[in-house]
Amino acid sequence: MSRVAVLGIGAIGSRVAQNLLDANHEVVVYNRTPEKAIPLVNKGAIYAATPREASENADIVISMVTDNDASRVIWLDEETGAVMGLGKNAIAIESSTLTVAWTKELAAEIEGCGGNFLDAPVVGSRPQAADKKLIYLVGGSAETLTIAQDIIYAAGASTIHHVGSIAQGMAMKLAVNALFGIQVAALAEILGMLSKNGIEPAKALECLGELPVISPSTKGAGNLMLKRNHAPMFPIDLVEKDFRYMTQTAQMVAASTPASTAIHEIYVQAIAQGYGSDNITGVSQLFI
Questions:
Q1: Domain residue ranges of the chain, discontinuous segments joined by +
Q2: pTM of the prediction?
Q3: Host H or E run for residue 253
Q4: What percent of the chain has pLDDT over 90?
């Protein structure tokens, strides 16, 4: 049994913490909104008042928060940051979706304090987390991953891809989210065009679904569009943030991203129209 701290118990983090409890690990949780921790505490988790308190005596500390700013505060706040409580042999795992630049900066801070670091963002949403079918994209040393992998599987992984060195897991996650976001927006646009040509969206998707031009995940998104089911699994607010982080990351290495830049503007428009809290499929409301 290991002592694992989970910092940020939102949609995915809460399920990760529950999976770890189910695997009989000692789990400490921290959340900016303490009330959200009550269900986990009732099931055996220990609540910590600060990230620093959560990380004390933890073998592994996992963070799942919204963005760079939240990650910086939760790890590096001078009084309450998790780094302040991190043990010398502990492993810090950043599973949020962040920029490559910030991931590298955070890794340097943690390693400078004697800790070990992995960036390990996940592919999947609430259902995959609950069913332990998350795909982890990991950057960092193979040795550190070997030590941490049993905990990562217990947290809900079905597959772990060791992408490469520190921040390369994060780069891959930004690429995955951008590729998915491009496909969803493109499908919404295509269904809108076909609808205006008299082809019902259901018929259009039925035809497209039989062709090799559509991915399974995009087909699933299309089915949600047809049902107008935009309950948030991957909210547009976060989609927009991830596109922004992807293009910022690309700019750091002078990589050209015209497609991602153009599609990013569509999600910005969706937010301006009031769809920010909708699932990514809500972008279809601009077209259909």
A1: 3-165, 171-286
A2: 0.95
A3: none
A4: 99
